[in-house]
Amino acid sequence: MKNKTRPVRVAVVGATGIGRHHANWWHLEGAEVCAFVGRTAESIEKTGAMLLETFRIPARGYTSLPEMLTKEQPEIVDVCSPNPCHYGHTKTALEAGCSVLCEKPFVYEPGASRETLLEKAQELVEIADTRGLRLGVCTQYSAGTGILKELYSKYHGTWELRNYCGHLESPAKGRSPDPRRVWVDLSPHPISVLLQLCPDLEIDWDTVETHFSGYAANVRFMGRSHNKEISCTIMTGNRTDPPQNIREFIFNDFRFLIEGERDPQGIYNARVETSLGNYVCEDFMRLLIRDFLAGRPTADGRTALRNLDLMMRFMEKADKQITT
Q1: Which of 181, 203, 201 is nearest to 315 (CA)?
Q2: What are the CB-based long-range contacts (under 8 Å, 24+) for 256-264?
Q3: Residue 212 in contact with residue 183, Cβ under 8 Å?
Q4: Helices marked H in the chain — which ranges?
Q5: Are 113 and 107 spatial neighbours (Cβ–Cβ below 8 Å)?
Q6: In a shared domain, residues 187 and 261
Q7: Residue 15 placed within a domain
Q8: Deepest of 138, 179, 229, 278, by most Cβ within 10 A of its Cβ?
Q9: Does 1 reside within a domain?
């Protein structure tokens, strides 16, 4: 008999919200979701029951990350905790010898300067590099960028990016207007797609125009890639009216609208809508997790650093333009 390869052991920090969907993707991709970390004994009981009932994942719950790491010894930790916890949880997991996939934004604490955040993020990248561990950030639309580019080439032939727009909006959910919160929550996604399209992107910071007001945080600027100019727009917002979500990317005036649908087995997929036809593929988050398991993070630590730097620089520009 052939020996079966042992599944990779994965633990999720924060499995109540978006983390429960991460747990399901890890499970569907063949990993063993062995454990999760929550805040209280009560939340652990509820989350454990939900994971078992909804996804058939018999994960063990902990309120202590160090205790979980010692007892479970996972190979990968998926950090889905609140933003201010990302740095501490990622560092603890890396120092325990685990590869880490961290939710966006990579490192963020309200009120912290860009320099402070980048120092902390750089520290995490160096720990991962020194220990030979994988480190990635959950910007799942970057995992689908190749699909969008292939569709563009299918319909338009040769590929040369001249104009880019990334537009994401999510429900306000009763939260008060706060453009900075909106920007931090959503901008890493369209920034990640742009960096995937143009890894050598150079921004003309004198051209940056920002509009941060109410539920909207938008940025326009000119960039250069392969010595060619690119007009770029990033739009983020919270919605109080339908549609609840907008996931739109425009390459050279060709529009991709990303929606979701479930297949007959109940598995969530991505539906890419265009004016020339629709295309159904696997969910982009599932693709990102699959690539991470295969040892090729879609957005690795250094890409996450660049994303964080741009997110903060644009926000600094907005702060200056508001006050002048």
Answers
A1: 181
A2: 256/148, 256/151, 258/141, 258/144, 258/284
A3: yes
A4: 18-28, 41-55, 65-72, 86-95, 114-131, 145-156, 179-186, 188-197, 284-293, 301-323
A5: no
A6: yes
A7: yes
A8: 138
A9: no
**Cβ count near 195 (within 10 Å):** 20
Q: Which residues pair with 36 in a beta bridge?
A: 12, 61
What count of other Cβ atoms lies within 10 Å of the Cβ of residue 323?
6
* Polymer length in residues for the chain: 324
Question: What is the pLDDT averaged over residues 292-303?
Answer: 94
Query: What phi and psi values does residue 323 have, to the nearest 5 degrees?
Result: -90, -10
Asked if 166 and 189 count as a contact pair (C-beta separation under 8 A), the reply is yes
Q: Which of 138, 161, 182 is the last residue of a domain?
A: 138
Q: Which two tokens stand for residue 16?
A: 């109540």
> 132, 167 in Cβ contact below 8 A?
no
CA gap 311, 248 in Å, rounded: 19
How far is residue 160 from each of residues 57, 153, 228, 293, 297, measured CA to CA in Å? 44, 10, 9, 31, 25
Give the global pTM.
0.95
Please indicate, yes or no, whether residues 144 and 116 belong to a single structural domain of this protein.
no
Same domain, 94 and 81: yes
Residues 257 and 111 in one domain: no
* Judgement on whether residues 116 and 146 belong to the same structural domain of the protein: no
Burial profile 80-89: b = 16 or more Cβ within 10 angstroms, e = fewer? bbebebbbeb
**Could you tell me the residue range of the domain that residue 87 belongs to?**
9-138
Question: Are 239 and 246 within 8 A, CB to CB?
Answer: yes
> What is the C-alpha to C-alpha distance for residues 293 and 211, in angstroms, rounded to an integer?
39
Hey, what are 164's tokens?
A: 């880019």
Interatomic CA distance for residues 98 and 75, integer angstroms: 5
For residue range 69-121, what is the model confidence (pLDDT) as tens digits? 999 999 999 999 999 999 999 999 999 999 999 999 999 999 999 999 999 99
Domains contained in the chain, number: 2
Q: Can you give the pLDDT at residue 267?
A: 87
CATH number at residue 246: 3.30.360.10
Point out the domain boundary residue: 138, 170, 199: 138
In a domain, 2, yes or no: no
